[in-house]
Amino acid sequence: MRRLLIATRNKGKFLEIKEILKGLPFELLNLDDAQKIPKDFDVEEIGKNFLENAILKAKTFGRMSGFLTLADDSGLEVKALTGRPGIYSARYAETTEKRNQKLLSELKNIPWSKRAAQFRCVVAIFDPQTKKLASSEGICQGKIIDKPRGKHGFGYDPIFYLAKFKKTMAQLKLSQKNVISHRGKALKKVRKILKKFL
Questions:
Q1: What's the pTM?
Q2: How do strand 160-162 and strand 116-127 relate by DSSP bridges?
Q3: Domain holding 133: CATH number?
Q4: Catalytic positions, please?
């Protein structure tokens, strides 16, 4: 069975990806499983957009490990903040809690009708043996509520509200989230792409 390196140390994200790619003939590893990659090594995200960052991570970790590698770059784009935090979503503040609080304080005087936001995910797959590269994208639209709700998920999930469910992303079960999330949509396309890498 071919190994597929998922370029993350985030256990929540790894479980999410594992669930969506279930049934494909790959052994899934995360960065902590790849012995050739130092535990403290990370790729500096210097790309101008999500696609550039995802490709940069997939190529770097793929070359270092020798494994077929899947990397994603995801973020939250808030319309009232002209697309911020965008590619800086994970670096918007030091911790998840601080990132959420910073965003909520920036939207404090913004009315509900103007709190539209979207999660965007770009996935890149790189094969260091053949130098083959592929990518896909997924978007999930919602709004930013005024305080966190829900215990599931990670990142901005507790403040990202989905009108269809009348819940935040963090209030959904993983099985529901994987159907509608930005990462879920991008990875569904990846399932078809990965078959070409077998």
A1: 0.90
A2: unpaired
A3: 3.90.950.10
A4: 73
